[in-house]
């Protein structure tokens, strides 16, 4: 997905993103309008998948809508047709501990806006429906969110019950952020939304006092982060290490480095600074559009003529995040421009 525009443009189910103007990139996490404490919740599964409507899920989606979730099994068990069915039915994903604003409720589902995923659709964050079982309003966790935090920088890492990291209780995705309580040897003690104190490997995370303290990346840093996801399955709405859509991939690569860009490709195009194709540097985004001007795809330039991107699944093929020559990219003849955020 890439955003698809999904619910906003239901007729365009195969497109990657909705182009809407007026967004701008901001450092670290974008400031959000204040909301009452009883409207704030936190994701308490490894990755929560947001839907366009409550209750759309099929039996095969059980690993994605319960608590705990199994995102790898969810994607691995689906056929091409089953994966393509998700196009237009999912909005985005939110990671463990990520803050959301509750907008409304319907039975066992909650309509939320995901903080840190800018969109013109809602100033509080990217909207979508999520099973209520995947959220917590734990006030103890909320009280810890202003302190130092650990940012997961490895593709995935374990969350452990003990400092020796012998008893894993959860697997976390890159870009997960949790408050830090302390450190013991090679382990960082973190506070979690649903299980109190826990431990992660210090090798797999960086600790910062605030989002503003995340070092501004060099172009090569963005390219290095992007390259590690080669071969990852395409997942419509994906923003985690278990699968990305095209704009979820680019958004996450920048977010890991403390730069918040819009969630959707069209908005990413509008937010960046134009750069000539022959002047691109690693980390620049490359956009593709139909003749109508509708931007449907985005990739990230790696340097030396190479690009990384997550192409949508075809009717006969489950696609994976690829590294390909810019001129040989499957949408090369639909190139519409490049943008820079550094």
Q: Count the domains.
A: 2
Shape descriptor reads globular
Straight-line N-to-C gap: 25 Å
- Give me the CATH fold name of the largest domain: endopeptidase fold (from Nostoc punctiforme)
Bin the helical content: 10-25%
Total number of strands: 24
Q: Please, what is the CATH homologous superfamily of the largest domain?
A: endopeptidase domain like (from Nostoc punctiforme)
Broad structural category: alpha+beta
Helix segment count?
A: 7
Question: What is Rg?
Answer: 19 Å
The overall pLDDT, averaged over residues, is 91
Describe this structure in words.
14% of the residues lie in helices and 33% in strands. It is an alpha+beta fold and 342 residues long. The chain folds into 2 domains: 6-138 and 216-340, endopeptidase fold (from Nostoc punctiforme), CATH 3.90.1720.10; 149-208, SH3 type barrels, CATH 2.30.30. The strands form 7 sheets. Strands 19-24-20-21-22-23 form a 6-stranded antiparallel beta sheet, with helices on one face. The chain has a 5-stranded antiparallel beta sheet with strand order 7-6-5-2-8, with no helix packed on it. Strand 16 (239-240) and strand 17 form a beta hairpin. The relative contact order is 0.18. Keywords: Hydrolase, Protease, Signal, Thiol protease. InterPro entries: NLP_P60_dom, Papain-like_cys_pep_sf, Peptidase_C40, SH3_YKFC_2nd. Residues 216-342 form the NlpC/P60 domain.
């Amino acid at each position: 997905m890439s955003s698809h525009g999904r619910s906003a443009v239901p007729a365009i189910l195969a497109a990657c993103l909705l182009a809407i103007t007026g967004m701008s990139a901001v450092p670290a996490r974008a400031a959000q309008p204040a909301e009452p404490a009883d409207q704030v919740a936190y994701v308490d599964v490894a990755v929560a998948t947001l839907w366009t409507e409550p209750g759309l899920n099929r039996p095969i989606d059980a690993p994605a809508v319960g608590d705990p979730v199994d995102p790898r099994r969810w994607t691995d068990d689906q056929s091409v047709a089953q994966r393509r069915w998700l196009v237009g039915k999912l909005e985005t994903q939110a990671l463990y501990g990520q803050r959301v604003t509750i907008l409304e409720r319907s039975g066992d589902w909650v309509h939320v806006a995901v903080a840190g995923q800018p969109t013109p659709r809602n100033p509080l964050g990217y909207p979508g429906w999520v099973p209520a079982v995947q959220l917590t309003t734990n006030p103890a966790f909320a009280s810890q969110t202003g302190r130092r935090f650990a940012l997961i920088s490895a593709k995935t890492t374990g969350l452990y019950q003990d400092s020796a990291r012998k008893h894993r209780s959860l697997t976390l995705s890159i870009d997960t952020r949790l408050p830090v309580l302390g450190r013991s040897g090679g382990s960082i003690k973190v506070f979690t939304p649903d299980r109190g104190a826990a431990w992660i490997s210090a090798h797999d995370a960086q600790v910062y006092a605030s989002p503003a303290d995340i070092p501004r990346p060099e172009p090569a840093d963005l390219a290095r982060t992007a390259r590690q996801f080669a071969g990852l399955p395409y997942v419509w709405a994906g923003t985690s290490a278990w699968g990305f859509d095209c704009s979820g991939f680019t958004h996450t690569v920048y977010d890991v480095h403390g730069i918040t860009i819009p969630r959707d490709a069209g908005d990413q195009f509008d937010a960046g600074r134009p750069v000539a194709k022959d002047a691109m540097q690693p980390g620049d985004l490359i956009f593709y559009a139909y003749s109508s001007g509708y931007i449907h795809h985005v990739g990230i330039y790696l340097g030396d003529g190479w690009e990384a991107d997550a192409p949508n699944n075809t009717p006969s093929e489950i696609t994976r995040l690829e590294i390909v020559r810019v001129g040989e990219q499957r949408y090369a003849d639909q190139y519409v421009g490049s943008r820079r955020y550094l």
